[in-house]
Amino acid sequence: MFKIVKRETMADDTVVLNEIEAPRIAAKASPGQFVILKANETGERIPLTISDLDPERGTITVIYMVVGKSTALFQTLAVGDGYQDVIGPLGKPTDIEKLGKVVCVGGGTGVAVLFPITRGFKDAGNEVISIIGARNKDLLLLEDKMEAVSDQLHVCTDDGSYGHKGFVTEVLKDVLDNHKVDLVVAIGPVPMMKFVSRLTYEYNVKTLVSLNPIMIDGTGMCGGCRVSVGDKTKFACVDGPEFDGHKVDYDGLMQRLNAYTQEEKAAYEQYCKLHQT
Ligand SMILES: Cc1cc2nc3c(=O)[nH]c(=O)nc-3n(C[C@H](O)[C@H](O)[C@H](O)COP(=O)(O)OP(=O)(O)OC[C@H]3O[C@@H](n4cnc5c(N)ncnc54)[C@H](O)[C@@H]3O)c2cc1C
Ligand code: FES
After folding, report:
1. Which of 133, 155, 169, 200 has most Cβ atoms within 10 angstroms of its Cβ?
2. 37 CA from centroid of ligand 1 (Å)
């Protein structure tokens, strides 16, 4: 069992942080990598990014949004409980080097994925400008942690309840108009990554995105996570999860993500019903 040693709720109780004992993963993982967790024997395999790690304590931190049956089951786990399986580190680490000026753009729970990558670019000696966004102030994640690893931090909310009122792309356009940027890293909802990539294409700035297709085995065997990148089929679990944002087929990714919406809704409703009785 992989014991939970710390649990925090964030963003209006819809997002949960778990620090988990997993010493062998904590000793090996790098920014950009993820784990697959199973709550119990019959649980689904759920991929979550390693948002932080502490090799000395032998722990990794994951931050997840409760969106369906399995993440609702995860939400019931308290400190002292554990995950039956945690497999990783999976995926390719982010290629972090000193480039000059790097802009890190995060939306929603994507900010939890972005944080270790932002810290990596800052530690490598880059000037880091970060732009983070959420639907409203209560849903904004990790503002303090992102501020600590950025030279400049811009905050946006869709409803204007905090920071700039509007989308991260509006602030990004302003940054691109006023700075010579060497790399943009964008992580968040698929439409956000699509529109960030469209914008940076106009400015000819290399852009990395981290994709979240449905995953099953996480080892390149099942094909569940296939995505189309530059007209080639890639498996996000072993070839990614990061790809060149200018080459991703975002519409195809959205279509595959929505393929099981009815079944996911039915499973969640049944889980909620069983849990209330
Ligand atoms: C590499 C990777 C890293 C991720 N990191 C994070 C993270 O750090 N924090 C976070 O909140 N979420 C992350 N996700 C997404 C997370 O895995 C899904 O939200 C979760 O699997 C939903 O499970 P569910 O049973 O609760 O919901 P479901 O009812 O099964 O699904 C709800 C929604 O989640 C999507 N989804 C369902 N199963 C998967 C799956 N196995 N993989 C990807 N998407 C799925 C569906 O398209 C659907 O729209 C990551 C996904 C990937 C692929
Ligand atoms: S999850 Fe099976 S091939 Fe990637």
Report:
1. 133
2. 11
Q: Is 70 near ligand 1, meaning CB less than 6 Å away?
A: yes
Alpha-carbon distance 245 to 57, whole Å? 35
Q: What domains, with CATH codes, occur in the chain?
A: 2-90 (2.40.30.10), 101-257 (3.40.50.80)
Q: Is 72 in the pocket of ligand 2 (CB under 6 A)?
A: no
The 10s digit of each residue's pLDDT in 166-205 is: 999 999 999 999 999 999 999 999 999 999 999 999 999 9
Strands (DSSP E) along 84-238, which ranges?
A: 85-90, 101-107, 127-134, 152-157, 164-165, 183-187, 207-210, 226-229, 232-235
Residue owning the nearest CA to atom 5 of ligand 1: 48
Number of H helices, E strands in the chain: 9, 17
Calpha distance 116→145 (Å, rounded): 10
pLDDT tens, position by position, 76-101 = 999 999 999 999 999 999 999 999 99
d(CA 129, CA 102): 6
* Range in 16-20, 73-77, 271-275 the model is least confident about: 271-275
pLDDT at 259 over 80: no
Ligand 2 atom closest to residue 223's alpha carbon, by position in its atom list: 3
Q: What is the mean pLDDT of residues 2-6?
A: 95
Q: Which atom of ligand 2 is nearest to 235's Cα?
A: 4
Question: Using an 8 Å Cβ cutoff, are 171 and 164 in contact?
Answer: yes
The ligand placed nearest to the CA atom of residue 221 is 2
Q: How far is the CA of 180 from the centre of ligand 2 (A)?
A: 37
